[in-house]
Each structure stands twice: as structure tokens, then as C-alpha cells.
């Protein structure tokens, strides 16, 4: 039986929703089942979780033939997603952060400086505020502030990524742009997960051709939770890092090596020395000031603070590689002490700075007020990350200064000052015992409290329109005073503390007229820069 006949039985390519190829079979899922009767011997039809699927033995159908179907499905998926690229009006929409026009955004992907421009992709599900079959949206920029929409670079169109082109990184090599990503597939009623690591290639930095899986099978000792490839060059070879879960349900780092970016050999599982959580996601690695670092998202982490109930974390560790690229992890830190910071990626600017962008969201958070306007989540601001005198420092990227408008000098006190903008940068020093209230209106506000008794800086978002998630984050600080640089952008707050020592990032939903600022417990001088809008990276 040929693949063409199966597609014909399915009512033609326009009625095909996805293609799957578990072990010895080929399956096509259809939109409408009415056309699919009667079926010849050798083809069966099954209802799988509300989706009709026609299945036959794969026989000698090759990957290329399946890819041709994938290309046709990709075309359909792009045109179906087109109306979802028009942004909805929303009072919560940021003015210069990257947000999805509609649907759900999660991790930044493939962040890289390549051929004179920055490329950034993000995980996107166009059709609802839900985590479903993910696309890669492609944006470019020359200044890290204004982003242009390019295309839907990857769609979940193929047998190896039918339930999501999951996260990964980019490599710039010999004029080409290589995207490494995880192909996520779910089979049958039990939604059995099938994971491969895939490659897509672009010669022109605009259109991407899928090359299919470069790693098809799981290494021994891990579950199907192995994903988010980061590829880099070290000691004369390419190295791929993957976040993984062992069959004992512990988080680990899986390492593969290659000499040509397409043939990969499994090397081993690492990270036992820091044993953290049941799964690691989204690895990244880079060198700062001759020291290598490793960034990842361990899941299932317990915190002693009773306010901190979310197990999904962000961490950075000092890492060393021996001559054969075996990693060892040394001491580590949380990258961000706020509520919403996950899955960050970095790239190097042409002048040598390491800039990082993250997802301002968390895996289980799906009920924000912006869902009322059909969009969910955004990316964080760009931050520079430095290693200075044995200390990690994170600063707002210097490029953000392009957004500044003429500053206002303010004296903050218990009397409210209207910021007259929902998007600004605020500089001040807080004294222990003081409370700063931002985004304040008649009922709503966010508090930043320097609690002298407990020696913590407390970020409190309980008086916002929050629908889901923790409301208090506490950060232990022992500095004499607390220098703050705060970025507010409609429904987000990013607080840089003590000149790069710490950062707290959070979503905060308040009505659009809640723009007042108060300081309780004294007075403080402050500088406020209203920020202008950046170009919105929606459809082209
Ligand atoms: C992290 C993550 C990744 C995965 C992607 C799917 O947020 O779960 O591990 O590749 O999201 O969208």
C-alpha cells in the first residue's frame, strides 16, 4: 500500500491533520472522518482522544516520502495560523517586551547573532492559551530592542514533531544557520511520548528546511523526557547538552558529541554531584571571563520558605569540562529570585557581551487575565550577564537605554505620585523598613518591602488581579541600603537589585490606570524614565 493511497483514503491532503510513524506503522490523523469509508484490508481506523487516525504498515515508505507530506502540512499550518498573528487589543500588552499576538508563548529558542543580525525564536501555540503542539516563531533584530517578525520557522508538521517542535538552540556555522530542537510526538490513547532531537537548516537566515531527527533513539537509562538541545564547540568537537530524566526519575544532563553536526554519539549522563529535582530542562552553557557556566531549569525543587511553593526553578552553575568534554558542576545560584523566570537562553553580542532572555512565565501557569484577550505570557527583558571578581552580575542590557524618554526627578513618599505611564524605568535606593508600592490604583498595587526584622526584600503581588501562582517571594539581603533599578511594562516588573547582584522578575496584572507610586516609611529621591514603545514583532 502506498502513502499516496493512504492520503487519498484520508480524503486528500487537505483533510490530513498530522502524520505519525510509530515503529513499523504510518498513521494519518484526519480532520473529518466521513470520507474515510470503506477502508481496504491493511488500513485500520481508530478514534484516539477525539481524533480519527488511519493506520497502515510502513512497509518500505522512506523518510523522504514522509517529509513531502510534512511539507504540505507545514504549508497548511502556516496558513491556518495566519489569522492568529493579528494581535488582540489588551490593556496588559507590553509596550516593548515580546508577547504573542494570540495564543501561548513559552521558551525563547535559537537566540543567536548570525550574519550581522540577531535571531530569536519563541515557542508558540497559536490557537488557545494552552500548551499544545508548539511552533517556532522567528524574529530578527539589529539592535536587540526592535524586533521584526520573519515567519513561522518550524511548525509541528512532521512524523517526528507532530505534537510540537519543542525548544532548542541555534548554531551559526559556515554561513548557515542550524536549528537544533526536540521533536515531540504523542502516540495512542495513552499519549505515549516519542522524543527525537532534530535539525533544521537555513542558508539565507529566513527559510528553514527540516533535516529530520539526528538522534532517533533514547540513550540507556533515561525516560522520553530528554530535550532542549544546546550545541557548542569545545576541544575540537561539537557537544550537545540535553535536559534529561533518568529512569529513577532524577534530573540529569545528557551529553552527545559530533564532528559534523549531524552524526551524534551518546557520551553519558552528568550532574550527579548536585542531584536536583526529577527533571532538567533547557540547558545552556557559555563562558564569562574564562569561566564556563551551565544554566538549566531543574523541576521538583523544594524550598524552605513556605511562600515559595513552585518547584520549577532557574539555576546557574559554574561548570568545568575536561579535555574530553566531560562536565563537572561546582557551586550554583538561582538566576532570578522573582516569580516568573524560566528557560533562558543567551548569545554573545559582537562586542563580546553575553546577553540573556528568558520566558516570563512558568510551566504550570495558564490562567492570567490576558487570557481574556486570547494571549498568554511574554519574554523578559534582555539582561547582560557578567562574572566579576568571583561574583555573578546581571545588568539590564545597555541597548534598553534607547527606549528612555526625558527623565523625571521624583521625591517619593506616602503621597502618591502618578508615573503617568504604564511603561517606565525607575531608579531609587530603598532603606530597610521602607515599602515601595508600584502599579497602584484604587484597589491594586505591587509591594517591594525591605523587611528589616527578617532581613529580606519581599516582593508581594497579592493585591493584583492574579489568578494563579504564588504571591510572595522573599530574597535574603544583607546590604546596608538597597539600590533598585525597576522596569515596569504594563503587566510586568523586573527589579535589578544592588547594581547587578540579584534580579526579581514577575508578571503583575493591574488595571491600566493603576500607575501610582508610593513610598511608605520615609522619603526617597527617584529618577523615572518613561519608556517608548518598541516595534511590535507580530506578523509581517
Ligand atoms: C520548558 C519546556 C521545554 C520544552 C518546551 C515545550 O518550558 O517544557 O522543556 O521543550 O517547554 O514547549
Structural class: mainly beta
What is the helical fraction, as a range of percent? under 10%
How would you sum up the major sheet? Answer: 6 strands, antiparallel
Please give the oligomerization state of what you see.
Answer: single chain
Which topology of the domain at 405-530 does CATH recognise?
Jelly Rolls
Domain Glycosyl hydrolase family 32 N-terminal: 97-396
Catalytic activity: Hydrolysis of terminal non-reducing beta-D-fructofuranoside residues in beta-D-fructofuranosides
GO molecular function: beta-fructofuranosidase activity
Domain Glycosyl hydrolase family 32 C-terminal: 401-522
Please describe the structure with a list of short key phrases separated by commas or semicolons.
540 residues; mainly beta; Gyrase A, domain 2; Tachylectin-2, Chain A; Jelly Rolls; six-stranded antiparallel β-sheet; 2 helices; 5% helix; globular; binds beta-D-fructofuranose; Sucrose-6-phosphate hydrolase; hydrolase
Summarize the structure in words:
- The chain is mostly beta strands and 540 residues long.
- Among the domains are: 3-61, Glucose permease domain IIB (Gyrase A, domain 2, 2-Layer Sandwich), CATH 3.30.1360.60; 217-335, Tachylectin-2, Chain A, CATH 2.115.10; 405-530, Jelly Rolls (Sandwich), CATH 2.60.120.560.
- It is 5% helix and 49% strand.
- It has helices at 3-9, 63-81; strands at residues 16-20, 25-30, 44-48, 51-57, 103-114, 117-125, 135-141, 148-154, 165-173, 176-187, 192-202, 209-215, 222-234, 237-246, 251-258, 265-270, 279-288, 291-299, 315-321, 327-334, 342-348, 354-359, 375-376, 383-388, 391-396, 408-412, 417-418, 423-430, 435-440, 446-451, 456-460, 472-476, 482-489, 492-497, 502-507, 516-520, 524-530.
- The chain is globular.
- Bound molecules: beta-D-fructofuranose.
- Residues 106-107, 123, 134, 166-167, 182, 227-228, 281-282, 342-343, 363 line the site of beta-D-fructofuranose (FRU).
- GO terms for molecular function: beta-fructofuranosidase activity.
Amino acid at each position: 500500500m502506498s502513502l499516496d493511497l493512504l492520503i487519498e483514503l484520508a480524503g486528500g491532503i487537505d483533510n490530513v491533520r498530522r502524520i505519525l510513524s510509530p515503529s513499523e506503522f504510518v498513521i494519518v490523523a484526519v480532520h473529518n472522518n466521513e470520507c474515510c469509508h470503506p477502508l481496504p484490508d491493511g488500513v485500520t481506523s481508530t478514534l484516539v482522544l477525539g481524533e480519527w487516525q488511519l493506520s497502515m504498515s510502513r512497509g518500505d515508505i522512506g523518510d523522504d516520502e514522509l517529509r513531502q507530506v510534512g511539507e504540505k502540512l507545514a504549508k497548511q499550518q502556516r496558513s491556518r495560523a495566519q489569522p492568529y498573528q493579528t494581535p488582540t487589543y489588551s490593556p496588559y500588552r507590553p509596550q516593548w517586551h515580546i508577547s504573542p499576538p494570540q495564543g501561548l508563548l513559552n521558551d525563547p529558542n535559537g537566540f543567536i547573532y548570525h550574519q550581522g543580525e540577531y535571531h530569536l525564536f519563541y515557542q508558540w501555540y497559536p490557537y488557545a492559551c494552552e500548551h499544545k503542539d508548539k511552533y517556532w516563531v522567528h524574529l530578527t533584530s539589529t539592535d536587540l530592542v526592535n524586533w521584526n517578525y520573519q515567519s513561522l520557522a518550524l511548525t509541528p508538521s512532521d512524523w517526528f514533531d507532530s505534537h510540537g517542535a519543542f525548544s532548542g538552540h541555534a548554531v551559526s556555522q559556515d554561513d548557515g544557520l542550524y536549528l537544533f530542537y526536540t521533536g515531540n510526538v504523542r502516540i495512542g490513547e495513552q499519549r505515549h511520548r516519542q522524543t527525537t532531537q532534530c535539525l533544521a537548516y537555513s542558508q539565507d537566515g529566513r527559510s528553514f528546511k527540516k533535516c529530520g531527527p539526528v538522534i532517533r533513539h533514547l540513550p540507556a537509562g533515561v525516560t522520553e523526557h530528554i530535550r532542549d538541545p544546546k550545541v557548542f564547540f569545545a576541544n575540537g568537537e561539537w557537544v550537545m547538552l540535553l535536559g534529561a530524566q533518568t529512569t529513577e526519575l532524577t534530573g540529569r544532563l545528557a551529553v552527545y558529541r559530533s564532528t559534523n553536526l549531524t552524526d551524534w554519539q551518546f557520551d553519558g549522563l552528568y550532574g550527579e554531584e548536585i542531584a536536583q529535582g526529577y527533571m532538567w530542562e533547557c540547558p545552556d552553557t557559555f563562558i564569562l571571563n574564562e569561566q564556563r557556566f551551565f544554566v538549566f531549569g531543574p523541576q521538583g525543587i523544594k524550598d524552605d520558605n513556605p511562600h515559595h511553593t513552585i518547584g520549577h526553578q532557574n539555576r546557574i552553575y559554574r561548570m568545568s569540562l575536561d579535555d574530553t568534554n566531560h562536565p563537572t558542576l561546582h557551586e550554583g545560584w538561582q538566576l532570578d529570585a522573582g516569580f516568573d523566570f524560566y528557560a533562558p537562553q543567551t548569545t554573545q553580542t559582537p562586542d563580546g557581551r553575553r546577553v540573556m532572555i528568558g520566558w516570563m512565565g512558568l510551566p504550570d501557569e495558564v490562567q492570567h487575565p490576558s487570557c481574556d484577550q486570547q494571549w498568554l505570557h511574554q519574554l523578559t527583558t534582555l539582561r547582560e550577564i557578567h562574572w566579576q571578581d568571583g561574583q555573578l552580575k546581571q545588568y539590564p542590557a545597555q541597548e534598553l537605554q534607547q527606549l528612555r524618554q526625558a527623565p523625571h526627578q521624583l521625591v517619593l513618599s506616602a503621597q502618591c505620585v502618578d508615573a503617568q505611564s504604564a511603561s517606565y524605568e525607575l531608579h531609587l535606593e530603598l532603606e530597610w523598613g521602607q515599602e515601595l508600592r508600584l502599579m497602584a490604583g484604587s484597589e491594586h498595587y505591587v509591594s517591594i518591602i525591605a523587611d528589616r526584622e527578617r532581613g529580606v526584600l519581599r516582593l508581594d503581588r497579592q493585591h493584583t488581579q492574579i489568578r494563579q501562582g504564588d504571591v510572595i517571594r522573599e530574597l535574603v539581603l544583607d546590604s546596608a541600603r538597597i539600590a533598585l533599578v525597576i522596569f515596569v511594562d504594563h503587566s510586568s516588573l523586573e527589579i535589578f537589585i544592588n547594581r547587578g547582584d540579584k534580579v526579581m522578575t514577575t508578571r503583575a496584572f493591574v488595571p491600566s490606570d493603576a500607575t501610582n507610586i508610593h513610598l511608605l516609611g520615609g522619603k526617597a529621591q527617584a529618577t523615572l524614565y518613561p519608556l517608548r514603545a518598541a516595534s511590535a514583532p507580530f506578523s509581517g
